[in-house]
Automatic annotation (TrEMBL):
Gene3D superfamilies: YjbQ-like
Domain of life (superkingdom): Bacteria
Organism expressing this protein natively: Alcanivorax borkumensis (strain ATCC 700651 / DSM 11573 / NCIMB 13689 / SK2)
Similarity comment text for this entry: Belongs to the UPF0047 family.
Protein name according to UniProt: YjbQ family protein
């Protein structure tokens, strides 16, 4: 089976957000698969996807704070500044983290580790909804 669908994530404030449940609610067909892959691709250049800690929200806050130190706003060497001080840092952060994930499916569920979840890393202060393309391959 191959299937591709679009997922819309609700607008989030800047930061790292656990979105596993929000993604899975929009992919009920995963339950039909014994084995497969879910590929998620975010259609934006100022947000990113990753997998990390799903239990302690302090991890998400620490990641956001570290990214803000690594990639500061208003750096004097930025040329792309017309869309606000958070825009160029958002592009850099999305390059560092990446736009996609490939996740294994096993027995109708994502085969994530016990402490793993899907993160939307929102790098803009006032972003809207985010669109993902979900491609499922499996049997």
């Amino acid at each position: 089976m191959w299937k591709q669908s679009n997922i819309t994530l609700t607008a989030k404030r800047r930061g790292c957000h656990l979105v596993t449940r929000e993604v899975l609610e929009q992919l009920p067909e995963l339950a039909e698969l014994e084995i497969g892959l879910l590929h998620l691709f975010i259609q934006h250049t100022s947000a990113s996807l990753t997998v990390n800690e799903n239990a302690d929200p302090d991890v998400r806050g620490d990641l956001e704070r570290h990214l803000n130190v690594m990639v500061p706003e208003n750096a004097p060497y930025y040329e792309h500044t017309l869309e606000g001080p958070d825009d160029m840092p958002a592009h850099i952060k999305s390059v560092l983290i990446g736009p996609s994930l490939s996740l294994p499916i096993s027995n109708g569920r994502l085969a994530l580790g016990t402490w793993q979840g899907i993160y939307l890393c929102e790098h803009r202060d006032n972003a809207g909804t985010r669109r993902l393309v979900a491609t499922i391959q499996g049997e």
